[in-house]
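Researcher: Last one for today. Full complex below.
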Amino acid sequence: VCRVGGGLLEVAKLLALKAQLGDDGKTQFVLKTPKGTRDYNPKQMAIREKVFNTIIRCFKRHGAETIDTPVFELKETLTGKYGEDSKLIYDLKDQGGELLSLRYDLTVPFARYLAMNKITNIKRYHIAKVYRRDNPAMTRGRYREFYQCDFDIAGQYDAMIPDAECLKIVHEILNELDLGDFRIKVNDRRILDGMFAVCGVPDDKFRTICSTVDKLDKMSWEDVKKEMVNEKGLSEEAADQIGEYVSMQGGMDLAERLLQDHKMSQSKQACAGLSDIKLLFKYLQLFHVTDKVVFDLSLARGLDYYTGVIYEAVLTQASAVSAANEAQNCANAEESVSVGSVAGGGRYDGLVGMFDPKGRRVPCVGVSIGIERIFSIMEQKAEASPEKVRTTEVQIMVASAQKNLLEERLQLISELWNAGIKAEVMYKKNPKLLSQLQYCEEAGIPLVAILGEQELKDGVVKLRVVATREEVDISRADLISEIKRRTEA
Amino acid sequence: VCRVGGGLLEVAKLLALKAQLGDDGKTQFVLKTPKGTRDYNPKQMAIREKVFNTIIRCFKRHGAETIDTPVFELKETLTGKYGEDSKLIYDLKDQGGELLSLRYDLTVPFARYLAMNKITNIKRYHIAKVYRRDNPAMTRGRYREFYQCDFDIAGQYDAMIPDAECLKIVHEILNELDLGDFRIKVNDRRILDGMFAVCGVPDDKFRTICSTVDKLDKMSWEDVKKEMVNEKGLSEEAADQIGEYVSMQGGMDLAERLLQDHKMSQSKQACAGLSDIKLLFKYLQLFHVTDKVVFDLSLARGLDYYTGVIYEAVLTQASAVSAANEAQNCANAEESVSVGSVAGGGRYDGLVGMFDPKGRRVPCVGVSIGIERIFSIMEQKAEASPEKVRTTEVQIMVASAQKNLLEERLQLISELWNAGIKAEVMYKKNPKLLSQLQYCEEAGIPLVAILGEQELKDGVVKLRVVATREEVDISRADLISEIKRRTEA
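Model: Here's the assembly. Have a good evening.
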């Protein structure tokens, strides 16, 4: 199916190679960003700022403080926290001194921060870039350098109250960003472990079987079963039993039913998880968010450090848009089956204790918003919209209609800046009026202050409204209040 | 003098070593951030946010867009841009694939971005962390990971207009941050080069002699001269002539005088630089900022890429505070002589061309605000002030006076969140009223909404003002507008 695409890909590679060679065939400088990374141009930054503002506003609404940690950690801080994914960690070169790695997520640095500062309760958010030497799929918003927006609640509290708040936050953010319909899947590590136990999975295979279950959002059950049986050596019978459970989805009712299930109810762990799911749904009802939340036994999540409730939000609508985009790209065709998750998290009660010299536990629950995929969707929406994205907030351009008025322009703009007005001037001694007006049209600047000999004599400025071309003389004394009146509405 | 301090330092090192050993003497996990880096706690973040907002507001006032680039670049992108400082670049480990380095500043990635995207004019700011394997001096705000706040204007424009705007920006920001008195030193690479030429410095020694001149803010003239003569092999006569020039400071008048100087005027380069300094001062007069700007022939700046005007801002008052702090620390005693620079920049007309396959030049001028030192000062000020730094913006706590009202609290806080109110609730089924009120006092939360059986029956909420302990019953229907009225003033 992909043969034509593959051929085109080859040609593209050759062309890229050719571009690296000069006219004389010598190798030249390669002008690019590292694999899996990208620059953000001003338009992308304007969208990014809007998304961040929505997210930060929500985190602040829920009373979170914020912290920041270094982009790299001691290598040993990250060791043993990510299971099979550890191979994706970026290490720094040993240049003499400590061995360092780029952070892989914001959760492990957060746990290190809590243990190091002996903090036993905090509600904090952290928005920063993390690094994974993964196979990039940039059209799907999967990069090697990407932002995470994390909100976590640390502390010994009554069950499921902070957990429910994390889900409320996901609900608020996805609603406010207006990305189309979404679902939040919920499960619990204890339910998974209990399920594995009652299905006859040997203890030492829990983690690896869990990793395989985690692939259910990308692979069919048949393929998952094959991996369990053929690669991981599970009995066919055990796999089939797991298969029955992981097809179950529901709400509080499903948790109640499973608590009565003759097999599941044999596991204390599973029962503890199921009771907490019930409690969680009770709180989610009070928050009026159960319409989007589904208890889904196939949700596993890869990371090793989760100990209780886990959740993941997926878009159920916007995904169609991006799947269509990806269909054009053969290399990614198989990936387009998966509906990308835009948020995920869970409870990790043991992680801080791994850092504490005395092993003191600080229970934690948190959520991470996967912002890159959200950016991609917002960018597509912005491009489809007829509205132009402004990349500055400039209110007025200080222009002149005649020559030799640079000094007067600089004097006036200095007054405006000092009064807090966002203003620009062209960096030319004698710019043409037309080019000054054109610049305003392109940049979306709404007003122009035009200076000329006559205006200077009269102590006024000609104020021009770019959209309507209307012009009025305003006295210099009234200019600042007039600009504010017209632009700060 | 430092013997006692040195002794204490030894003891501290031993104690740190002991802390790494468990009770049984086995090595334990080291709980720290990498050398030269730090975490920011919520209080520091609140201050950081305030400083960033001031700076961003200024950059936006001047019509700048913003971009972002990856934290690492291809190693070859950074090669040959930083002269002797290149040894301070952090390299990533070769894990198969491209050779990468952490960015050393934001200027080189900006130039790479312009060349890569064939952009010939833009005004952009970029606030991000950069990395230097330097000797950290954290009490002075010198870290291995630190923020830079860069504003640059790229494009072919009339001389000194964008350059003057950069200085106006430094002036605005340092004024608004209220850090005490400051000076902005100005010089020009062409004046330095011309000066070296007329003083008899051989062409191939310009850069290295320039590096030595750059040390004049940390070393006496005698020591600088010694380095020139003994280490760099300059004739004593040439050194003395340089000594005369680099002691000169002034304004437009000095530039005029040097244009008449029988020796300096022999250098075309120097004359071009001096004429531009004159023009710069003319524009700075229109901006009313000449009170803080001084033309200082000793200003050299280390980086290789500057080609024209260069500048550096130093605090002349706050430095006294931090010098006093450092006096307690023997290790840093010699460094406290230097008055830290808080902003610097200049013109670099050749850098973009180094990245363009055809060598097309894009003239650039920019300024970088050195935020870490500013943070240190703001932190010291905040600590000295009786006012408490709030780390959240929570408007109200939803509390209960009796037991078994968790559900009612969750329902109410959900309503508040949905109405955009910043609110918190304690994550306990039955918290004591006193502990809820105490939390508000500590966190600076101004209002409490108290629920009790009676209030629920009456359809009201008891609104308590934390500061005055005043309490009023507010109907549920009016609650949101009442909270807004009382807190969004």
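DSSP finds 18 helices and 16 strands in chain B. The domain at 396-487 of chain B is CATH 3.40.50.800 (Rossmann fold).
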